[in-house]
Predict the structure.
Amino acid sequence: MNALDHTAVLERHLLLQLGDRLKRLRKAQGLGTVAMAQRAGISRTTLSAVEAGDPGPSIGTYLRVMSILGVAGELALLAGDTLQPPPPDTAAARSRRARPAVQLIVSADDTRHQIQDLQSLALHEEAVRRVRADPALLRQAQATLERWLQGGPSRSSSLWKEWQTILAQGQWRKALGRTRRAQELRQASPLTTVLPDAVRQNILAQVSELRKGVVLGDDMSNGAAP
C-alpha cells in the first residue's frame, strides 16, 4: 500500500460485508456449511474464506456461492452496461432524459467495533505483505517480540509466545482471521511496528473517512458524505 492508495481499506470493507451477507443468507436458507460447500463444488475451508470476506478465493468462487444463494444477479448488474452511456446513434443516446444518478454511501458500524476490527485487519494485512517481501522486516518484528518477552510477565505473554510460532513458521492466517483469537492476537501484535509511519497514517486516514461515510456514485470521487 503506497501513499497514493486511498481505496484499499474501502475495498477490504466491502469484501468483508459481502462475506457477512453471504453467511447470513446461507443460514437464513437453512443451509449448513457441508451442504453449501458441496453445492458450490468447493471445500468447507474455501467456503469459510468466502464467508470471512477473504480476498484469497477467486471471483469465480464468490460467484458460485452467490448464484446458489440467489444473489448473483446483483453482481451481473455491475458487470453489465446497464449504467453505462448508451452506444452513439441510438435512441437512448439521442434521448434528452437525464441518466439517473446512482449514489451509494458506504460506512462501517462503529457501535459494534467494526471500525476497530477493520483498522486492525488492514494494518496487519499490509504488515504481512511487507514482511513477506522483506526478511529484514521479519527479523525486526521478531526482535521486538523478544524484547517484550524479556520484559517480564504480562497478560499478553501467552499471545506473544503464539506470535513466536506465527513469525517463525509464517502462519499468517492465524492472525488475519475474523475469529476472537485472531482479534486477540492482533491486539498483542509486534507486526505493525514494522510499518512506516506514513503507511500507518494512510490507513488510519482511510478508516476515518469510512467512519464518516464514503460516497460512491456517478461523476463523483470518493469522499466523506455530507
In short: The mean pLDDT is 81. Strands lie at 103-106, 214-217. The first strand starts at residue 103 and ends at 106. Residues 49 and 56 are 7 Å apart (CA to CA).
